[in-house]
Amino acid sequence: MQLLKERILKDGTVKPGNILKVDSFLNHQMDIPFINEIGKEFKRRFAGSPITKILTIEASGIGIACIVAQYFGVPVVFAKKAQSLNLDGEMYTTKVQSFTHKKVYDVILSKKFLQPEDHVLIIDDFLANGCALQGLIEIVDTAGATLEGAGIVIEKGFQHGGDALREKGIRVESLAIVDSMSDDSLTFRA
Ligand code: G4P
Ligand code: NA
Ligand code: NA
Fold first, then answer.
1. Which of this chain's residues are annotated to bind 5-phospho-alpha-D-ribose 1-diphosphate (predicted)?
2. How far apart, in whole angstroms, are the C-alpha atoms of residue 102 and residue 97?
């Protein structure tokens, strides 16, 4: 998505540890007209899929998913990160390893909100190693729902989480794939 690539080049900054900061328009301050364009683009790409629910994970995926959902006319459900689990059988649970934050956390989703008849589009802001996305996919599988694909705003292609999922046959649509980045240069996959 050309508009997004231009915005990353204009306003993104590269931080130590291969972190791309896009705080001024995507994950801290949010540029709503711009995110509306992102919503339209995901709708265009997934127009042929019978999506019934958008799934994301807290925190920064939620705002984006809500805007995207308006173009699909379906609810958003977000998985929650839990510190300690109180397992009562009413929740889907999985563990996610965060490389960025160097920890493992539990992810939970109420069984009420994901059913076998659902067709799910997962939306998230970033895809790096893909651990968060794998956790969400596992929950969709456990629910017996149909995964239509994942829509990612920015994929860090050099961390290969997206490639691994595509090799498994999962449809991963990323609006910008960063193939390399340093203090003074950033390149996108064609
Ligand atoms: P992975 O899920 O793809 O394996 O990635 P990883 O564990 O490394 O990422 C952990 C968190 O950091 C995720 O947010 C992810 O979206 C975010 N992240 C990864 N790389 C970047 C980056 O280059 N720039 C920015 N801005 N974020 C990045 P999270 O833990 O789910 O936290 P939240 O911020 O959504 O609450
Ligand atoms: Na994040
Ligand atoms: Na996120």
1. 128-132
2. 7
CA of 43 from ligand 1 middle (Å) equals: 24
| Domain range summary for the chain, segments of one domain joined by + | 2-188
Pocket test for ligand 1, best of 11, 96, 98, 122 (most atoms within 8 A of CB): 98
CA distances from 137 to 24, 27, 30, 39, 56 (A): 29, 23, 26, 21, 10
Is 27 within any annotated ligand binding site?
yes
| Ligand 2 midpoint to CA 125 (Å) | 7
> Residue for token digits 């929740």?
91
Q: Is 101 in the pocket of ligand 1 (CB under 6 A)?
A: yes
Q: Which residues in the chain come in under a pLDDT of 70?
A: 84-87
At 103-147, the pLDDT tens digits run 899 999 999 999 999 999 999 999 999 999 999 999 999 999 999
ipTM surpasses 0.95: no
Tokens of 62: 């939620």
